[in-house]
Amino acid sequence: MNDSLLMLTVVAAIGLGTPLIFATIGEIITERSGILNLGVQGMMLMGAVAGFWATFTTGSLLLGVLAAVVAGAALSSIHAFTSITLRANQIVSGLALAIFGAGLASFLGKIGNDPLVGNPSREVFEPLFTGWLVDLPLVGPLLFGHDLLVYVSWLVAGIASYYLFHTRMGLSLRAVGEDPASAEAAGVNVSKVRYVHVLTGGALAGLGGAYFSLALVPTWQDDPIGAAGWIAIALVILSSWRPWRAVFAAYLFGAASRVQFTLQTLGEPWSDIPSTLLSMLPFVLAIIAMIVLTSGKRARYLGAPAALAIPYFREER
Amino acid sequence: MTSDAATPLAAELIGIDKEFYGVKANDNVNFLLERGQVHALLGENGAGKSTLCSILAGLYRPDSGEMHISGAPVLFKSPKDALAAGVGMVYQHFRLVANLTVAENLALGHPGLDVRLNQKELQQAATELGQRYGLPVDASARIWQLSVGEQQRVEILKLLYRDAQILILDEPTAVLTPQESKVLFKTMRQLAEEGRSIIFVSHKLDEVKQISDQVTVLRDGKTVGGVATADAEPKDLARMMVGRDLELPTRKPSEDIGSVMLGVSDIHVQSDRGLEAVRGMTLDVHEGEVVGIAGVSGNGQRELAQGLVGLRPLTSGSVELDGVDITHMSVLSRIRAGCGYVPQSRLGMGLAPGLTTEENLALKAFRRPPYSKSRRLVASAFRDNGEREIKEYDIRGVRPGLPIRLLSGGNLQKALVGREVEMSPKVMILRSPTRGLDVGATEAVRNQILEQREKGVAVLLISEDLDELMALSDRLLVIYEGEVVGEMPTEDATAERLGLLMAGQREGAS
Ligand SMILES: Nc1ncnc2c1ncn2[C@@H]1O[C@H](COP(=O)(O)OP(=O)(O)OP(=O)(O)O)[C@@H](O)[C@H]1O
Ligand SMILES: [Mg+2]
User: Fold this and answer.
1) Is A182 on the interface with B (CB under 8 A)?
2) What is the distance in angstroms between the Cα of B497 and the nearest Cα belonging to chain A?
3) B219 CA distance to ligand 1 centroid (A)?
4) Does B175 lie in the same domain as B266?
5) Nearest-CB residue to A187 (from B83, B104, B116)
6) How far apart are CA B350 and CA B344, in angstroms?
7) How distant, in Å, are the alpha carbons of A117, B221, B417, B437 from that of B444?
8) Same structural domain for residues B75 and B223?
C-alpha cells in the first residue's frame, strides 16, 4: 500500500468515524446516568432527517445542526419519560424508540408535494481550512483537512471527559449511574440528573445523524446511516464508557469500514476478495472486540455503570 | 433540660403515618428531639425505626403527619431538602458509592462546592474533619477498599462535612466491634456537646443505657412511650419493646460431647483479591458442641466459612464431615451431606431477595418431594410448609406473594435460620447470626442454636459479638490474620483475654 493510499484511508476513517463519535459519546453520557438507551439508531435517523430538512428549507447549516440536536433530544425524551418516570423496561423502550425513529424519519423524507428523498442538500459541510495548512505533509490532511464538525467532535470528547471526571456535575452523574440510592441520600436529584443526560445523549445522537445527511452523504435517501446507531452502542462497551476512547474506537471502526474500498483500488489480487465479506469486517471486528473485552476477569475493570438499566424506586427495599 | 420558647426542639415529628403494601410501618408516631441530646430509638425488628428515621431524613414521604425543625414546619421532598435543613442520616445499609473515593463521596451532592472538583482540597478537608472528630480515614481510598468500620466513619464525616445539626445513626454499632463502638460513642458525645442532636438506633440495651439521654420506644409502628435514660434499666426497656420479660438464653455446660463431626485440617483459602486469607487452620467440631470463632472482622472469617461450605475453593487442606471427605464436593453435595450454613449477608447469599418467603423457605429442599414430584413443583407443598414454618419460627410481616426482601432484618434471619434447621443438618456454620436482631429475635435465634446443639448438631459459630460467643460456645478459638492464635474452653475466657488475642498478641510468646 503506498503512502497516499494509507493517508486517504486514514482521512476517510476520520470522516466515517465522526458521526460515531457523537453518537457513542452521547450514549456514554446516557449510560453513565444508569439509563440504557438502545434507541440510538432512531435518534440518529431523526437527527439526520431534521438536519437535512432544516438546511434544505433555510439554506443554513447552523439551523440544520440545531434542528438535528433538538430532534434527537426530543425523541430521547420519550425514553427518558418511560424509563425514569414510568420505570418501564429500558430495553423494550429503547428498541421501540429505534424502530419508531427509523420509521418516522423515512416517512418524513417522503411526505409532501416535493419530498426530500432524492434531493441533494443545499449546503454541505466542507473542509474548514484551505491553502498551505492542508498541503503540509502528514499533519496537513490529518489535522487540517477536516470540516467543522470533526473539530467539534474532538471538542465534545474533551469536554465530556473533563465534565465526567473533573466537575461536580460529572461526579453526580457517575454516582447516579453506579448507585442511585447512595447518590439520592447524598442529596443528588436522581431523576433530574438522569433526564438531563438522557436528553444530552439524544442531542448528540441527533448531531451524529446530521453528519451523515449534511456531510458524508449529503443527498436524502431512505437509509442514510446504515447501522451506525447500533454500532455506537457496541462502541460504548469497546470504549469502556470513556469519551476519549470512544474517539479511537470510532476511528478504528471507520477504518475497518473503509478497508473494502481501499483494497478495491489496490487491484489484483486484493480486489478479488468478495466485497460482501469485507463489508462484514467492521461488524466482525466489533463482535471480537466485545467478546475479548467483556469475557472473564476483564469485565470487572470494564467500568459499566453498576446500576445500568435497573429502574430506581426511592422507597423500594 | 426542658424546652421553652427560647430553645425550640431540634426536631418534632407529630402524628407520622407511613404504610407499605398494607402494613403500617409508622402509625401515628410522635417523636421529640431535644437539642444537644443523644436520643435512642428502640423497638423490635420491623417496629418502624428505620422508616421513621428515613422520613425525617427526607428519603420517605410520610402519608400524613407534621415535622418541625427548630420550631419551623418543614416538608422534605428528598434527602436534599433534609440536608439543606441540617438533617442527615447514616443508613442501616450504608449509602456510599463503592467505586468513588472517600473525598468524592463527601463532595457528592454538596451544593456549596465549585463546579471544578479539586481532589487535593477535598482530601485535605476530609482528613482535617476526620482528625477533629476522632474519625480517621484515608481520604484518597476508594470505599470498597475500606472496612465496614471505616465506611461508617465516612458516612458520619459526610454529614459533618454538610454541617448537619441533626444526625440520625441507624444501628451504627451493629457492624462495629466493642472497641470501635467505644470510639464512636466518644465522637457522639463530642457532637452532642457542640449542640448537635443525635438519634441513635440500637438493639443493644446496655449501649442505649450508656450513651443516650432519652429513649423512645416503638412497637408495631406505634410510639409506646418515652423515658429519660437515667430512669430506666435495660430490663425495663426490653419490657417496653416486646411487652414481656426477656431472658437471653445461655448454654448449660454439657458433659457428653460426641465424636468429631466437622474435621478441618490445615486449610488455606484465598480472598477475592487473591491474598491468602485463611492460612492453615485446623479445627474440630464435635457432635453436640458449639465452637465459637472469635476475631475482628476481616481476619478470614468470610473465607473460612465459604471454604467450608464449598462456595470458595481451598488452595490446600481438607475438610471432613462425619468421617466423609467433602473437600472436593460441590455445594449441593455438601448440603445433602448435612452441611447447614447461615451466611453473613442475609439477602443475596442467604435468601433470594426477589422470591417469596414460602419459596425461600424451600430453597434448599425444593428438588425433592414433597416440593417436587416427577420434576414438577407442587405449589401446595410450598404453601403448606411455608405457613407451618412461618408460624413455627415466628416470622412476622410476611405478605403472601410478595418478595421476602420486604421483611425486616430480624425476620429475614429467623426465616434463614429456620430454613437451615429444617434441613436437619449434621453441621451448622453460622456467621454473626444475631447481628442487627432485636432482643426478642436474638432470644429466638439463640434458642434455635442451642436446640440444635442438644440434638447433636456440630455448630461452628463465627461471630464478632463476644457476648454471644461466650453465651453459646463450649469452646472458643481466636483467629487473627487467617490463623488460629488461641483456643480455650469458654469457662477460661474473659473479654480482656479474647480482646488481646484478637488484636494479634500471642499468649506466652511475648
Ligand atoms: N421500602 C419498604 N417497602 C416495603 N415495606 C417496607 C419498606 N420499608 C419498611 N417496610 C416495612 O415496614 C415495617 C417497618 O420496617 P423498618 O425497616 O422501619 O423496621 P425497623 O424498626 O427499622 O426494623 P430493624 O430493627 O429490623 O431494622 C416492616 O414491616 C417492613 O417490612
Ligand atoms: Mg431498621
Assistant:
1) yes
2) 39
3) 12
4) no
5) B83
6) 8
7) 76, 21, 10, 10
8) yes
Nearest by CB to B97, which of A170, A179, A314?
A179
Q: Where are the domains positioned within chain A?
A: 5-310
Quote the domain boundaries for residue B112: 9-242
pLDDT band at A287 (very low <50, low <70, confident <90, very high): confident
The CATH number given to whatever domain includes residue B140 is: 3.40.50.300
Question: Using CA atoms in the order A280, A283, A285, A286, what is the torsion angle rounded to 10 degrees?
Answer: 180
SS3 B479: strand
CB neighbours (10 Å) of residue A233?
22
Ligand 1 pocket residue status of B48, Cβ below 6 Å: yes
**Distance (Å, rounded) from C-alpha B415 to C-alpha B174?**
20
CATH for A5-310 is 1.10.3470
Among B190, B213, B242, residue at a domain's last position? B242
Task: Give the number of other Cβ atoms within 10 Å of residue B413's Cβ.
Answer: 28
How far is B119 from chain A, CA to nearest CA, in Å? 9
pLDDT band at A166 (very low <50, low <70, confident <90, very high): very high
pLDDT of residue B134: 92
Cα–Cα distance, B27 to B19 (Å, whole number)? 8
Does residue B370 sit within a domain?
A: no
Contact B97 A317 (CB under 8 A): no
String of DSSP letters for A91-121:
HHHHHHHHHHHHHHHHHHHH-SSS-STTPBP
Q: What three-state secondary structure class fits B434? A: coil
Distance from Cα B92 to the centre of ligand 2, integer Å = 6
Q: What is the mean pLDDT of residues A133-161?
A: 90
Residues of A in contact with B117 (CB under 8 A): 166-168, 170-171
CA distance B131 to A175: 26
Backbone angles phi, psi at B254, to 5 degrees: -120, 145
Domain count, chain B: 2
Instruction: State yes or no: pLDDT of A254 exceeds 50.
Output: yes
pTM for this model (two decimals):
0.86
Number of C-beta neighbours around residue B243 at 10 A: 12
Contact B429, B292 (CB under 8 A): no
Residues of chain B with pLDDT under 50: 1-4, 510
